[in-house]
Amino acid sequence: PNGGLVFCMEYFANNFSWLEESLGHVEDDYILFDCPGQIELYTHLPVMKQLVEQLQQWEFRVCGVFLVDSQFMVESFKFISGILAALSAMISLEIPQINIMTKMDLLSKKAKKEIEKYLDPDMYSMIEDSTNILKSKMFKKLTKSICGLIDDYGMVRFLPFDRSDEESINIVLQHIDFTIQYGEDLEFKEPKECEEDKSALVDEYFQDHVDE
């Protein structure tokens, strides 16, 4: 199945003219690409990078949204693995990236409290957790180096996403809109101007009646 997916994506990369015709050039379009979740497309192949570059050439503002299942991120070593996957995609695509921990609504209350520490993690405090679970001295030094790198540079943080919570959805959307500067070029009519125009019309109306 992965080989078939790789073939499809490479075929897609050779036919971007079809994509350009399908997208068109309408101002203020907000387009979502639901990308395949196979990590090798972002680590071993240039296809997704080519797609990003092509969209940027067409003057689209591009932002990556990396989704990780919260039910997977329940143990320290799995969390570190998820961060490395997100970091790998971020480095490969070289675009602004929002990292989201999904399916928070499926977690129990206990699991939600437990997973809070992963939203803004202290990687050094997780070193012992991950190495104790693995019970292997062989990878302690490597794990410590990885955790130190992630913590020192602070490159990956996760936003919680709960589809049953409207506020959670709005927070994620606001982060994405801010990243791509969506709506920044739109012209807004100031409310004060409207009020001033109305008052001027009212004054003119009364002045006309006084003159009469």
TrEMBL record:
GO MF assignments: GTP binding; GTPase activity
Keywords from the named record: GTP-binding, Hydrolase, Nucleotide-binding
InterPro entries membership: Gpn (IPR004130), P-loop_NTPase (IPR027417)
Pfam families in the record: ATP_bind_1 (PF03029)
Cited function: Small GTPase required for proper nuclear import of RNA polymerase II and III (RNAPII and RNAPIII). May act at an RNAP assembly step prior to nuclear import.
Family, per entry: Belongs to the GPN-loop GTPase family.
Subunit structure: Binds to RNA polymerase II (RNAPII).
Protein name: GPN-loop GTPase 3
